[in-house]
Amino acid sequence: MRLSRLCAVLAIAATAACSSTPDAREPAELTDFDASKRFKEVWDYSLGDGQGGAYQRIAPAVDGEDIAIASADGKVALLDKKTGKRRWKESYDLAISGGVGLDDQRLFIGTADGELVALNRSNGDIAWRVTVKGEVLGAPQSNGRIAVVQTYSGQLSGFEADTGKHLWTYTAQVPRLTLRGTSTPLIVRDTVMFGLANGRLIGMDIESGSVRWEQRIAVPQGSTEIERLVDVDGRLLSLEGGAVVVATGYQGQVAAVDVATGRMLWAKDTSSYVGAASALGYIYVVDAEGGVSAIDASGQGASWTQTVLARRELTEPAAIGGGIAVGDLEGYLHLLSQVDGSLQARTRVDSDGLRAPMAVSGKLLYVYSNDGELVAYKIQDR
User: Which residues, if any, are the signal sequence (predicted)?
Assistant: First the structure.
């Protein structure tokens, strides 16, 4: 990871850690290629100031026929996912930093001031709001009965989804030096899983808040704080009908874990601060230097690695239309072949950059830019 980005996303009590310059290489220049596919814009919608001035990764969320988005300056909108037609839009006196989560009845957002807010899905009215300990940087999640939220301070808390009544809280010790971000909790049946800044993946009973298992994804190594920095920040990937979860760790591994037992099924040394995608029996991973790799879902090795987008601060990958889509710091959206990693298409979404994870539903790819532009694309052959 380039030093400029590392310093932007670190949280540290002392600032001296970013005074050295071990790697200040510039992003790889974009190269020409023969495009075999293209991104066709279907619709777009603009909302507030998008990610705002802090290093947020507020992602869109798709559920049923809806897509929900939020902006750092307190705006939230629910749209028709096929047409982009607005169902409702509201503005709140909230500094939104984590969102959006959805269940059948509610939207959930988290704030920089340490609040979990539930909105009525039908009209955007505030259903309830509660205080949590620390900034919320990942999207809160709900199974319809229990809403869970993870904070930057190392807590995961469960609340009644209907009322906001506090049910339980798990607290982890957070290292002094971490990446700026948290994982997004993943709920699979009665288990909620989440990554921590100490390099661990935790599986808990969502009803009681009791820990079922812990698994180490990244182990601190080295003599300096930056060298020993580990984190599990990327979104977790559910596979095999929820039986397996794939986690990525910064200065750690990409690992497949059995959801029922926490047993490590396989692991590959890969440093990544974003989540993974899956298609065609492969796991697609973006490493911290901007390399994109296809790893056999059985853990039996890499099929290909593409480094042409090195140091371009790529987003979490998204699988769609036979390709792997990634965005970059200059706002370009790229499509790589799932088969061999070759470049297939490119378009520029927004000169302010792309950072948030994208969403996929059917044949549509949803990209939310740093300045608040949500664009739906189809992949077409040229």
Answer: 1-24
CA–CA gap between residue 29 and residue 31 (Å, rounded): 6
Residue type, 159: F
For 19-68, write each residue's pLDDT tens digit: 333 445 899 999 999 999 999 999 999 999 999 988 889 999 999 999 99
> Contact, 100 vs 108, CB < 8 A?
yes
Task: For domain 31-49+294-382, give the fold.
Answer: Lipocalin (2.40.128)
Cα separation of 137 and 57, whole Å? 8
**How far apart, in whole angstroms, are the C-alpha atoms of residue 266 and residue 275?**
17
Which residue ranges make up each domain of the chain? 31-49+294-382
CA–CA distance, 255 with 201 (Å, rounded to integer): 10
| Type of residue found at 378 | K
Residue-level length of the chain = 382
Give pLDDT, residue 177.
63
Look at residues 211, 224, 279, 215 and name the one whose alpha carbon lies nearest to residue 248: 215
SS (H, E, C) the chain: CCHHHHHHHEECCCCHHHCCCCCCCCCCCCCCCCCCEEEEEEEEEECCCCCCCCCCCCCCEEECCEEEEECCCCEEEEEECCCCCEEEEEECCCCEEEEEEECCCEEEEEECCCEEEEEECCCCCEEEEEECCCCCCCCCEECCCEEEEECCCCEEEEEECCCCCEEEEEECCCCCCEECCCCCCEEECCEEEEECCCCEEEEEECCCCCEEEEEECCCCCCCCCCCCCCECCCCCEEEHHHCEEEEEEECCEEEEEECCCCCEEEEEECECCCCCEEECCEEEEECCCCCEEEEECCCCCEEEEECCCCCCCCCCCEEECCEEEEECCCCEEEEEECCCCCEEEEEECCCCCECCCCEEECCEEEEEECCCEEEEEEEEEC
| 116-150 pLDDT per residue, tens | 999 999 999 999 999 999 999 999 999 999 999 99
pTM more than 0.90:
yes
User: Could you give the strand order of the β-sheet that contains 282-286, starting from the edge strand earlier in sequence?
Assistant: 277-279, 282-286, 292-296, 302-306
Give the whole-number percent of the chain exceeding pLDDT 90.
Answer: 77
Environment class of residue 90 by beta-carbon count within 10 Å: exposed (0-12), middle (13-18) or buried (19+)? middle
